[in-house]
Amino acid sequence: MSVKLTIIGAGPGGYVAAISAAQKGAQVTVIEDAEVGGVCLNWGCIPTKTLIASASALELVRNAAEFGVLLSGEVGYSLAKIRERKDKVVGTQVRGVKGLFKSWGVALIEGRGSLLSPDVVRVVQKDGTTMDVKSDKIIIATGSRPAAMPGLPFDGESVITSDDAVRLASIPGSLLIVGAGVIGSEFAFIYRSFGADVTMVEMLPHAVSTEDEEISEILERELKKARIKLITSVKVENVEKGGDGMMVAKLSNGQEVKTERILVCIGRSMNSEDIGLEAVGVNTGKRGNIIVNERMETNVPGVYAVGDVTGNILLAHVASRQGLVAAQNSLGGSVRMDYSTVPSGIFTVPEIGSVGLREKQAVEKGIKYRVGRFQFRGLGKAHTTGELAGMVKVIAEEETDKVLGVHICGAHATELIHEGVLAMTMGATAKDLGQMIHAHPTLSEAIMEAAEDVHGMSVHQPKKSKERSS
Amino acid sequence: MNPDDIKYHREHAWVRVEGKRATIGITDYAQQQMGDIVYVDLPEADTEIDADSELSEIESTKATSPVVSPVSGTVVEVNEDLADSPEIINEDPYGNGWLVVLEMNDSSELNDLMSKAEYEKFLKEEEGK
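Above: the input entities. Below: the structure tokens describing the complete assembly.
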């Protein structure tokens, strides 16, 4: 008898778990309340990257003269066409997942699922009818949603979520983004390219504060170059609506920002309400996150949870890996989640890619380490494309020379970072990375040079008269 | 040619003083070393700067280099033209390529700086190293 596995939620956690379990012979049912693909495919990763592709095409055309390409007439864009392209890309991806479900025999029920007992999931279908799905094992993958700011409710028009921002209904003259994290920073560049006057405010001292401080500093300068205003270490105290349709945000430092629209990107709330967790006794944490162990098990035997709803690292690729782990364990396997080499990719201009320890973490942990750096402007390839900004930073353990972290801000950083992920996964040393022959001319050479710089042997860097002060 | 109405700092910045106002830039030697300048990160008005600390960072096609302030003071003016045309520094480092004006705290700091002749001698020594 094959295992009956029911998965609530078809985002990158749920759908990957579903297909993987089906491939292993389970009888899988997926319940989805909104769209297959979840936030990632419908309101997050994929649509935002599609918008970024349009924005960067626009920027390239604007800079055409730099490459000796002459245009006549005015460079413009059509929001309708950009939206259409985005919807097409999203549609293709969603159909792709549905096709995979069909191919592997995964049953999809559209409706809202909740736990009735540890072995029954009740589904309220779109037409209002309910059905109970008897299950041997259950995986909860209900995801997350944009968190609201107290006192500033979303209205979808003037105070918006990232879900609204991705719909790209119109480009406001001015946009205030609350929260300069990953999502806020990506939208800042998108809306700036399309002509909005963008201001970002951040409670913490840096933009993208989850990254190495030097990487944040590079991005902060690029924000400046793009004429995106960033105000750090401040909170929004209150927002008042004026008669002219404009809002005024009062900041904790006394500054006032007048804006047409506010995009709130202060974090995400877990979708753990009204899914029967209390009824079955599944433990949750303070933020409503479902508590799981490394095997993705909740405290209730047979009930697993993966993805954003576990509140661990809210990234699609983490959810997918958790989904694989949960699927395998639910079918009798015994595998554990390993978070030590999770890459992060941020699609700002330029991009950011990172893996492993940040320098500050190495200091906090008392690890003795060495740092190597290489600036993109030292690469021939960077000059050919005119993408000079950025740096690769490699952190290696002093004693063993093992790579502990790789941090990149620069063109194509989200692709380049995987060399660092591979190095860390295989336990490579900075010397290994530096000795590896890198094709010329490529941006990947920056990783080789930064790894060599760990030992002061980067060929394409001048002799250092003194260490950097920072 | 290096002018003789300004004072020079060993990290290749210069300062021109009128009363308490100190206009600061980088030397011709510095701009030549950096190569084509593509971006200048300037402090905002009212920022307090200490002598010998970082005033600005200049990005060239070759490198990102810090600019060290020759004197202490408060930023009262920044060269807005550099935002769109950073290459002015390459073209006219002692004139239109100035970076900021500081209101000085302590004019005695000027005594620690070099004259044109001293700076040129210093450059020769540096080159010889």
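Note for the figure: Chain A touches chain B at residues 221, 224-225, 375, 377-378, 383, 388-389, 462, 469 (CB under 8 Å).
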